[in-house]
Amino acid sequence: MDSYNLTPGTNKEVNECKGNYFSTTNEVPLLQERPATIRNRTYSEMTDKGVWRHLLPQVVATLLGTMMAMSDGMSYGWTSPMIPYFKSNESHIANVTEFDTELMETIVLYGATTGLPFTILGVNYLGRKNCMIISAAVGCICWIILLVTNSLALVFTARFFCGMAGDMCFVAAPMYIAEIADPRIRGFLSALIYLMMLVGIVTVYAVGSLAPYSAVPIIGIIITACQVIFFPFMPESPYYLIYNNKNESAKKSLVRLRGVNADIDNEIMEIKQAVDRQKSEKSRLQDVVLIKSNRRALIIMLILNTAQHFVGISVILMNLHVILDEAGSVYMKSSTAAITFSVIMLCFATFASGIIDKFGRRILLVSSATLTGIILLVIAVYFHLKNLEYDVLFISWVPAVGIMIYAATFKLGMGLVPIVMTAEVFPTTIKAVGMTLSDVIYVIASIISITLYSTLFQMYGMHVPFYLFSACSFLAIFFMIAFIPETKGKTLDEIQLMLKGDKNGNVGK
């Protein structure tokens, strides 16, 4: 493996960053390095008003480009308030069975899996920005169907395509953000997509519980339509433009993203050097698992994405009302608790996104897994005592309070860091494939966790799946300490050095 100097400074040094890169002709290069004048600024300098004026266009582009993530959050949490509605006499669709409600939960995940090949092709041939617009347009159509249909089959169809649209959003948007973001706020901007998803969950829990059925689809239509209408006016990724030999358009895009006073010519030159190098290199698709550093990146995302679901987040989001009703709490209605749960998730995810670039990824992950495992164990013990027919009325507040604490501890790290690291750990040459495979892992883990929960709950009671989730949370701590590197403040090239085991990389430190 070639070695090179990572000390920020000259274009020559950037040009000499050859490393162990592999490329396919279909891959669009992603973020490499930023000009040294930008990279060398410290975290504390971000409080300067001039710096934030320089960063504001990137924040605006990210917010407008991630409105579909809010829609995806609404779709993900939709079953929690809607399944009780479909089972009630007020349902506008008759004869909804238990199997139908389970399919409503999982079919969105099947849609996400089915959409993965289209996502890979889309981000490379159509571009990140266009894929983000397409995903919002598909999401808008799905919400329209859910608003007007009286057919259960069309509900399933809309949910399926919601999954496809959400998958495209959660692959294309992080890639777009990584390409336009200043390294100082890359973690924060990458976290915004997850925050928008949480806003969607808060919305669907609140509106779905308190308003008529039609209210949620109407909000979904408005949100996705806004992205379809306004996001086309945002700048395209300069990397994608240069890759397609649109250098003047790339320069205009950078001016809009960085401001007229930024060192645009220097950054354009660095991007072009990176693109030319990528085009000159060759690779095979299987290198994502055959190359050691790529394999490590895949293992990292396997750990993070599997851990998220095996500590129960998908199960709790989709079955929160059922879980709280099963707890039999007399202190808080399940609908009120669900809204509170989603608000707490949003607040702590916002807090974590503000400190992730200061304290780092690993400390948030390990702290989150430890606290989450403890609270899941407490909830499991409560359900176990209830299952053994002990009188637990005087502590029936435990599950509701425990779920609220779970919302905080999970979002502190395990619920936020994976979406940030997925755009960091894969090398630019296989990022599209790597991120898509990560999404496959995410979806499969979600399906398995939901299936396990349903089976164990019906066979043994609510306490067994919660014991399992707690055990998985504690087990995740070991894997996080052993395998997850700290990427805070590092360029993408430095992260690759760590994964390659370079003597200066200090993997895991």
Automatic annotation (TrEMBL):
Species, as recorded: Ceutorhynchus assimilis (cabbage seed weevil)
Lineage summary: Eukaryota, Metazoa, Ecdysozoa, Arthropoda, Hexapoda
Pfam families xref list: Sugar_tr
Keywords attached to this entry: Cell membrane, Coiled coil, Glycoprotein, Membrane, Sugar transport, Transmembrane, Transmembrane helix, Transport
InterPro entries (UniProt xref): MFS_dom, MFS_sugar_transport-like, MFS_trans_sf, MFS_Trehalose_Transporter, Sugar/inositol_transpt, Sugar_transporter_CS
Coiled-coil parts of chain: 261-288
Any one GO CC term of the record: plasma membrane
Bilayer topology term: Multi-pass membrane protein
Chain ranges passing through the membrane: 55-78, 107-126, 133-152, 158-177, 189-208, 214-234, 298-324, 336-356, 363-385, 397-420, 440-460, 466-484
Name of this protein: Major facilitator superfamily (MFS) profile domain-containing protein
MF (Gene Ontology): transmembrane transporter activity
Domain annotation Major facilitator superfamily (MFS) profile: ranges: 58-488
Location within or outside the cell: Cell membrane
